[in-house]
Amino acid sequence: MVKGRLEAFSDGVIAIVITIMVLEMKVPDEANLAALRPIIPVFLSYVLSFIFLGIYWNNHHHLLQAVRHVNGRILWANLHLLFWLSLIPFVTGWMGENNFSAMPVALYGTVLLFAAIAYFILTRVLIDHHGKDSILATAIGRDFKGKISPVFYAVAIPLSFVNSWLSCVLYILVAIMWLIPDPRIERNIT
User: Fold this and answer.
1) Which of 143, 157, 148 shows the shortest CA–CA distance to 104?
2) Helix/strand/coil for 168
3) Which residues of the chain, if any, have pLDDT below 50?
4) Helix, strand or coil for residue 1?
5) Domain boundaries, the chain
6) Which of 12, 70, 170, 188 could form a disulfide with 74 if both were Cys (CB 3.0 to 4.6 A apart)?
7) Residues ≥6 apart with Cβ < 8 Å to 117
8) C-alpha–C-alpha distance, residues 65 and 182, integer Å
């Protein structure tokens, strides 16, 4: 099967997820800067989630550039990833509306953890399909970022019950680590 439909569907889902997230931000009733103060946590959670979704979209795009074709396993692995990404608006809103309280921050991390695991699974299924000597397998290599990210999330989830802001710092560190797509894929394709 060609990969075009998978790419188009994934792009559409991520675009809808981002749209849902921004629509969840409620407009203040008053027309002054003080009216914005209560929505600062909501806005901050939105920014963090927008960055994460952008990272997934960007890296997903790069991942599929090294792929020639897909099969049913790949389609299901991709849907698995999209499922977890589709939960981001809910946990983002809950976290922001509750001023980064422990339980919402922990659930946010849980969704990020399962999205990271799903992305790792997608990568492995793609490599299995294209072979260990494929461009993708060569580009991914040992996949340090793909293996360390779930560890950060696994530490951040229980940490949120001690200090939710430290958990958020770990989430931000993962985002910083992934902000720049892996240049090995671009190098191997060109």
Assistant:
1) 157
2) helix
3) none
4) coil
5) 4-189
6) 70
7) 150
8) 12
